[in-house]
Amino acid sequence: MSTSSLRRAVHESVSGLPRAFWWLWTSTLVNRLGAFVATFMALYLTIERGYSASFAGLVAALYGLGGAVASIGAGVLTDRLGRRPTMLAAQSSTAVLVAVLAFVEHPVAIAGVALLVGMAASASRPAVQAMMADIVAPEDRVRAFSLNYWAINLGFALSSIGAGFIAEYSYRAGFLIEAVMTMACAVLVFVKLPESRPDQAPTAAGSAAAPSVNLGTVLRDGRFMALVGLSVLIGLIFQQGSVALPVAMGADGFSSGDFGLAIGVNGVLIVVLQIPVTRFIARRDPRRLLVVSALLAGYGFGLTAFAGSLALYALTVAVWTLAEVVNAPVQMGLVVRLSPTHGRGRYQGVYSLSWSVGSLAAPLIGGRVIDEYGAAWLWGGCAAVGTVAAVGYWGLMRGLPEGPETEAETGTESGDTSGAGEAGAGPKAVSGPPERDAQPTG
After folding, report:
1. Phi, psi (5° rounding) for residue 381?
2. In 10 A of CB 311, how many CB atoms?
């Protein structure tokens, strides 16, 4: 690709999005530049503290349990109180709790604070994702989610490599750096981001009121809940990158710096590939994209069974990174398509719950399988789960209307302009995969 073609591709990928989106994008980048706890908790507990892989898995599971508990409540708060106050409360609480985690030493205290950190960190996810859907036009959402995922991994790529060496010096310093960066993210949200929650459109005389959306509505939505179930399976796979992979590498004699370099490949490749891949997937069948991403995730981790050097570990990371690049924006775009405008917080909360369930179950499964049977069995299981998810995506997408909108979106987008037009955010664009939390992030 020539320089002019590359510039044109970048311009087409980033142009036309509202100003508020870019402040939200910047807050995501700041947040992920300080990422440490979720990535290095397993190494901290097994190497620094000397606990077993099972205990590290238990603590990581409690972190995931906290996220599961918070996701639903945060989704309701996002719809009732608004996106901005929910983000502010979640991010400031996370900063304080991560700082506390740096100083607690008793195993029960570590487990308890990890639970609270998981709750606080996950509480901002529904608000971030709902705000992004509010302020970006339907036809631009996959692109916007791709760019936001790019910010997540740009921060992750930089923080993973640096934090790996910080961990060799002081794990406590890593926790404190994350606390400072998370608080900086909250300050940025407070100063720059307006509230974007759509106003309920007035009902014309004699017309039926729009049906209300509650948690029961979400749970009875069969297609959406099937997507949530598939997201749990994908989360079970991807979470092994931050739970089982560092433990397996540590057992093979690799250091925290080695793990930082290997997992840093994930972030670097996403930074390099996300923009060109976004242009590629915009014109492709989302069903096939989700099927391929599930297979790449499962068999990418499956190949880890054959890794014996740092280079081979990095190669396996590269394979399942391709799955993340494709899966995250396509799946997030599908979530918004299936969500009614005035229920986005609740729908995003339940969707975030799927990643929290993955965070809860993956370390318990991964730690137990490694301790009882060895890592090779875990990696083989990842390949099997990826195959099941691929079949599930194929069935889920059958009969889904094409285009950026479904009936849940039709005729309800008028409220979206409120978030984009406030505080100089600019007009809506007309021209966008759990935390890296593929992981959706707080």
Report:
1. -65, -35
2. 9
